[in-house]
Amino acid sequence: MLRLGCNNIAKNYEYINQLNVFPVPDGDTGTNMKVTITEAIKKLENEKSHIKSFSELGKNFTRDLLLFSRGNSGVIFSQIMKGFFSNIIVNKTSNNSELSIEDVANAFIVAQEVAYKNVSKPVEGTMLTVARLISNEFKSQKNRPKTLEKLFEQAVKVAWQAVKKTPQMLPVLKASGVVDSGAYGFACFLEGMLSYYGGESNLDDNTLSTIEIKFNKFKEQHANEDEFGYCTEYVLRLGLKINQTVEKQKFHQKKFESKVNRIANSVVIASDKDNGFVKVHAHTLKPHLLLEMGLNYGEFEFVKIDNMNLQVNNKNNSPTKRVLKPAIVATVPTEAFAERIREDHDINAILCTDDTGAPSVFSLLEAVKLTNSSNVIFLLHDKNYFLSANETIKQLKHQKINADYVITANPVESIAALTVFNSDLSIHTNVKAMKRFIKEFASATITQASKSYKENKVMVNKNDFIAVTNKSIIASESQLTDCFFKTIDILSKKVKKPEFLLAYYGKDITEQDAKKMQALVEKKYKLFCEFSPGEQKVFSYIIGIQ
């Protein structure tokens, strides 16, 4: 049933996006709900062989919904589901237990209670209203049908009735001639669940035509809006410390929520005590303050900050025709690399992977949209991203978008490859030129060994600094400087006339230490050197010579 609910969201997400005018008209409610639920369902499918009860199913599904939740709609939906499964998790631990009408009716009631509790300032005329009206329906015993099928039919009927009422509750919806996008999405999910029994839709698609007429008026009203701010989301692992000398405070949700509300709105804060993490979603003009607040209690597992002004402008001014000039979609480990690429090459379709992990097909497709090009090159800094890129290319063919990829060994190679990219040339010519340039470019990563071992005739001792190129260890030294010099010696032999050294230092290297290293290198070698902060977690240095 959950999968069917997910499928119905996926089928309708583009329409849901068009309905999106509240709280910010950035057209991503459907996308956020689709990503949230799809990723949680995927995780559930992978774990299904280990799930023996409704309790385990509920624990896993609600945990993953919270972790994968995106946007205001995704986080609120995760809280509705958290409430729905809360009693089921406690009471249905047996592997042969079944859900009764009483269980599901009570689940809808608690769903509303938990969601309203965790949303800082609940707004009526949203998916919260749908949850509340379904809850009210089942609080009376006489309104509870005699079968689960009839109960879900009743829930879906009430859901669509609630959706139709949302314009009367939120003036911005009425002015735009639409129903609430999140409410519509939640009703779609329930309708998908009902389809397990063969149930049908209770709502005719009679709103789309009014969107096209009235949404233009809404766009004009908000054309000069300059304070949407930043949609800021993060997952915080409580008590975790990167810097062992810094003490973390004990997390109190109400106190934290009170602080967040002083600088933000659309605040949703949800915690998972069993797994020790907190999900925070808020709209703010000061995202840096929101991040600093979180660091008092733990460390980030995931951070996402979207400029909602740009999102709204992109939606309102999106061109109807894609350009023919080739564009780049790049992956990099950190924002520091992304900023360098933006500044030097005016490329904005960049995915940072240190916090989010390997890019999914969905995230690559979304990045392609940012380019507005019908010819795209994926510049990947990790060979492990090939499968996602290859599947994305297949899907882009259906959209009549040509795509190819260039894989590099590290982000420094990617930055080097971009120096020969020419948007006036074809994809084929650019890919060929970039691959040729990479072959003439020598690079390596330097990190510290976690154990002693021998590889490729190189003896590595624990805590040695090791240099790696093409997955082979080329140097191992007890001192970082010695390892750096030896790496330069080896890489220089691979380049015909080495003139330029590019180095990005990681989180474990201070700016002062990097400057000292640069001075030593410039003194010893006749190379023009550029040292920049990369902020990467794993490698002390990523260096390249050309």
TrEMBL record:
InterPro entries linked to this entry: DegV_domain_contain (IPR050270), DhaL_dom (IPR004007), DhaL_dom_sf (IPR036117), FakA-like_C (IPR033470), FakA-like_M (IPR048394), YloV-like (IPR019986)
Protein's UniProt name: DAK2 domain-containing protein
Record-annotated DhaL domain positions: 1-195
SMART domains linked to this entry: Dak1_2, Dak2
Organism this protein belongs to: Mycoplasmoides genitalium M6320
SUPFAM superfamilies in alphabetical order: DhaL-like
